[in-house]
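Appendix B.2, paired examples.
Example (i):
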Amino acid sequence: MSTTLVVDGANVVGSRPDGWWKDRAGAARRLHEGLLVADTSYDVIVLVLEGQAKGGVRPGRDGHLRTVHAKRDGDEAIVAEARAAVERGDRVTVVTADRFLQARVEGVGAMAMSPTWLLDQLD
């Protein structure tokens, strides 16, 4: 069984008051770089970006990390990515602090974890 980690980019970046709001694209790029080199147990990591953050990372695959640019809001893209991975038979974890989104992804069979959990692994 493969494992997939779906990351709510906006939510993870927004969980640290480090000035990300001054440079959303740069904050997304830093998160992407951290995920690229992170020593995780996941076979695939999907980073979902929305709005201005999309300017920091091109969409597509970079090794085990795939970046998705949400067409409108990130939540719909995150749920779609989680659902597709669950339907493939993957064990799926979604990283977000958004309680409504957590409930939605749990409803499609994924597990939800907090941004702090992920950031602790990246530090």
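Example (ii):
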Amino acid sequence: MRERDPRIVLGLHRSRYERRILTGALELGVDAIDTGFNYHGFSAHAALWAVGRDLLPHFKLSTKVGFFPAPGQAEHSLDPSRLREAMERTNYDLCRAPDLVFLHNPEQSLTGSSSAAQDKLGMACAALARATAEGLCGGWGISSWDPRLLPSLVDGTMPKPDVVMVRAGLTAGIDILEASEALAAGWDLGSSQLWGMSPFGGRATDPLWGKLDPRLFIQDPDESLSAVQAAFRTAYRLPRVGRIAVGTDNPPHLRELIAALRYEANADTLLTYRRLLRERTAHQPL
């Protein structure tokens, strides 16, 4: 078993929830997994327990609440009582308290006036903070696919999350990157408390990674560095995050991503890239 590396979290969004995925991660030194109440058809937690009950004590486990079963499709809610019920169900299905629970895409329910949205977000955050204090989870956070609305809602009266998780990497637009950084700054979170997700914008097998050469963003790349590895390593700087949740059911692919961490991103190239993104956005027609 390799020495653990806390910079990678195994994301289980599209996972088949097989035991070999968990054992493979542990063998490679990845001992953090991230799932969600609504993943795997709202059965992710029970599926994890079924295939890896003896392995789960070896993992730091994060999950998410905010989406709920509804006829035809999932529905989103920030209702504190529903969030509480989901967390209690999570504890029951996992036979343990998760180490971290994220409020899942709160922007989905933040409609109406700014004051109404702020109140709704504040009550949802307070529900997770209360659940943490009562032992239903070890900590809590915000996981946002589109955080652009959120920085304007954060004030000193709102509970402070332990972690914020946002999109990261070359497929995230400058508006997402800057909103993510503003959200972290609003809560005075350091880079270790900001996590990235979806570093490939979907799948590492996307044809995009055969056309784009992300090695341009790596300092001193060598011939062994692949485009996928370069894209993954670059994602830690777009925005600057301490960890990235990345999904794969393929242990060799996970091994490839771990190997990418020995490289460093080129700070000057990334500054230029961000400036070009900003300029391009400024010149786009309204």
